[in-house]
Amino acid sequence: MSALEIKHLFGLRGVSKSDIRLILDNAKQFREILERPVKKVPSLRGMTVVNLFFENSTRTRTSFELAEKRLSADTVNFTSSNSSVKKGETLVDTLRNIEAMKIDIVVVRHKGTGVPKFLADNSNAIIVNAGDGAHEHPTQALLDMLTVEEKLGTLEGKNVTIVGDIRHSRVARSNLWGMTTMGAHVTLCGPSTLVPRNTELMSNVTWESDVKKAVSNADAIIALRLQKERMDDALLPSMREYRNTFGITHELLECAKDKVLIMHPGPINRGVELDSEIADGENSVILNQVTNGVAVRMAVLYLLAGGRAHE
Amino acid sequence: MNKTVNKVVLKNVRPYVKGKFESPVTMNLADGKWVKESLSDAVEVDAGGAMAIPALFGLGLDFKEPLRDDIYNFKDGEEAMRRGGFFGGLYESSDNAIDDSRKLLAIKQACSASGLSFAFLGAFSVGYKCKDLTEMIELAEDGAVGFGDGNQDATRTRFLRLAMEYGSMTGKRFFFMPLDESLRHHGLVHEGSFSDTLGMKGIPRVAETIAAFRILEMARFLKVPVHFKQVSCGETLKLIEDARGQGVDVTCDVDIYHLLLDDSCLFNLDSHCNVVMPFRSAKDREALWQGIKSGTVNAISMNHDPVLRQDKEVNFEDAVPGAISLEIALPALWKPLTDCVGESRAVELLSKESANIAQVEPSAIEQGFKTDLVLFDNKGETLVEPGLFAGQVRNCPLLGSKLSGKIKGSYLGGRWTEV
Q1: Contact with chain A for residue B132, Cβ under 8 A
Q2: DSSP A190-238
Q3: B199 touching A (Cβ < 8 Å)
Q4: Pair B81, B406: CB distance under 8 Å
Q5: For A161, phi and psi rounded to 5 degrees?
Q6: When comparing pLDDT for A135 and A306, which is higher?
Q7: Measured between beta carbons, which residues in chain B are less than 8 angstroms from residue A115?
Q8: What confidence tens digit (pLDDT) does each residue in B307-316 have?
Q9: How far apart, in Å, are the Cα atoms of A39 and each of A34, A289, A297, B303?
Q10: Torsion over CA of B211, B216, B218 and B221, rounded to 10 degrees?
Q11: Interface test with B, best of A12, A108, A198 (most B CBs within 10 A)
C-alpha cells in the first residue's frame, strides 16, 4: 500500500493528483469487495472511529458507518442533539473528551467552514471532513469521480457540468477542485443569485449562465439539491421558475449528448432540480453514486489510517 | 517588566522635538515633565540610542467595564496603554452604551485615577437601539466629545436624521462605522475571491459604501460634522473626498489591522482574524495606504476590543469578533508607516491627528513642559506572544509573528513603565 501525502482529509483543494488516484484505485478494490457475499475486511480491526455529526445527515453518516463496519472498525455515533453540546460544551472540549476515550479517527460534519482543520489542530486524531459549511464535502466529490471513471473509464478530458446552487454548495466546491486535478473540464451553471461573484481563485473552470450551453457538451451532469430556504431568503422567486429554467428535464437533455451521465448528491427534490423520469432513467447513475460512496469512504479511512491499524 | 516609578533619567535617547528626532541626549523626567535639573533619586535607563516618540493616542478603546469586566477592566486597559505607549484614548464601548450622564460621569471617574487622558463618546440612541434619543445636550455638557452608537448600523434613516438634527445643537461630531446591516446579512468576512472559494458568507464593499453615502448625504443636508470609523475600502475614501469637495465636514480613520492584513489570511481560518469590520482585499489594503499617503485618512484607529480566550479558541465562524492592538501597535506600524509617509507624518498620525479627532490636547516632548513619551528602539524586534498583553486576553491577529522595532518603556502621566 502506498501512503497518502495528506494526514487528514479536509477537502480536495490542494490535494495532489497522486493522492486522489490512490484513493480512487483503492476504492475500486473496495467496490469489488462490496459485491462479494462476505463484504467485510479486517483492515481497521481494533481501531475506533467516531462519527461526529453536528448537522443532520442520514445518508452520509450511514455511508460512513457502513464503510467503517465493512473495515471492521469499532464505530461510535455522536450527534449534537444527543450530546453535551446542547449543554454548552465547546467544540474543543467535546473533541478532547471523545479523544480521551482513545479514539483513532473522527469523521466530522459541521456548519462551520474549517471545523475539520480546527479539530485537527487541537487533537491527535485523524480527521475526515464529512461536510463543513459551504466549504467542502470531499468524500462526495471522490464518489462522484469514482462514478464517472467507472462509467466512462477516465476523468481525463471529460466534460462535467454542475448545475444549481453553486454558491452554497460544498459538493460543487470539492468537485471543481478534485475533478480539475484529475484532468476533467468542469462547467458551473446556476441562477446569478446562486453562483459566486468572485471566481478569480476558481478560474480553472468555466462559468456558464445559459444552462443549454452548459450541458451541450457534457459527459456528465451533476444536478445540485435546491434548498427551500433559498426561496425564503429571496434568492429565487419560486421552485417553479427554477425548474423551468435550470431543472434537468427531457427538454433540456435534448441539447445534451445521448449518453450523458445524470448524477445527484441526494436527496433529490423530484420535479425541481431533476425530473422523476430523468432521475429514474437509463442515463441516471445516482444509485451507483450511493454504492460508490461506501467504497470511497472505505478507501479514505483505510489509507488515512495507514500503519496505525492493528493487524 | 512593568516596573513603575515616577522619576527617570533616560540616557542616550533621541527625542522627537518640534518635528524631528534630535541627536542622543539625556532626558530627566519628573512630575510629568522633562526637567533641566539633574535628578538624584531617579531610575537610570540607558536607551541605547532609542527614539523618544510623543506618546500615542488610541481611537476606539473598549475596556468592557462595567458590564463585561469578566473579560477586561480599566486596570487592564491602563496597563495595555502603558505597555504600548498611549497617553490617552477615545473610549466607546460596544457593550456599555454611555447613554446618560450618570454613566458618563461614572466611567470618567473610573478612568480618572489612571493619570491618562480619556475622551468619551456618548450614545445618540438609548441602548444603541435607534429608538429613543439620548439627552445629548447634557451628555455634551458633562464632557462627551461626540456621539456614536458603537458599531451599530443606524438602520432607521429617519431616526438618524432626528438624532443628527437634535445633536447638531451641541456642535459635536457624530461617529459611525459605516456598514449596512441588511447587506451584511450575517456575513463575517469580506465578500471576495477568498470567501467565495471557502464558501463563506461575505460582506460586500457596497455594504460600507451605501451606509457611508447615506450618512454623508445626511451630514451635508444637516451640516453636521461626522467621522467614519474603520473605513476598509478605497470606494469609501472616494466618497469622503467627494463629500469634502462639497463642503461636508467629514473625518475618517482606518483600523491598524486593515493596514497590515487582508482577506488572504482567511485561508488559515484563524479565529483571531474574525474582526468586526472584515479584512478586505489586497487591493483595498493598498487603497487605504494610498489614503494615508494622500491625507484622505485622518488617523489610524486601534479598536482595542478584548475577547475572552475561550471565545477565540473555537472555529472561525463561531468566534466572537474583535482584536486587541495597544501593546503592539507601534512596532507593528512603525516601519510600514514611516516607509509610506516618513517619520514626521507617522508621529502625527499616531498621536496628534488621533487626539485632534477626540478633541484632546496632543502629547509633545519639550524641555520644561509636560511630557508623555514612548521609548522605542526601531532596530529591535518584538515577538508577539501572549505575555505581551495585559489582562487575560490575547486576541491579536499577529500572535506568533515577529515585528520590527521594540518598545522599551513609556513615561505617561508622570509614571515610567519599563517594558
Answers
A1: no
A2: --GGGS-S--GGGTTSEE-S-HHHHHHT-SEEEEPPPPTHHHHTTS-S-
A3: yes
A4: no
A5: -110, 130
A6: A135
A7: 315
A8: 999 899 899 9
A9: 5, 18, 14, 60
A10: -160
A11: A198
- Whether domain B54-362 has CATH 3.20.20.140: the reply is yes
Q: What is the pLDDT of residue A310?
A: 39
Span B369-379, pLDDT tens digits = 999 999 999 99
State the Cα torsion B362-B395-B234-B251 to the nearest 10°.
-30
- Residue B70 Cα, gap to closest chain A Cα (Å): 18
pLDDT of residue A309: 43
Model-level ipTM above the cut of 0.95: no
Residue of B nearest to A171 (CA): B199
Using CB atoms within 10 A of its CB, is residue A154 exposed (0-12), middle (13-18) or buried (19+)? exposed
Superfamily of domain A138-290: Aspartate/ornithine carbamoyltransferase (3.40.50.1370)
The top-level CATH class assigned to A17-134+293-308 is alpha beta
| Nearest-CB residue to B193 (from A118, A173, A201) | A201
* Domain ranges in chain A with CATH number 3.40.50.1370: 17-134+293-308, 138-290
pTM of the model: 0.92
Please check the confidence at residue B1 and state whether its pLDDT lies above 50.
Answer: no
> pLDDT tens-digit profile of A158-174?
999 999 999 999 999 99
Domain map (residue ranges) of chain B: 54-362
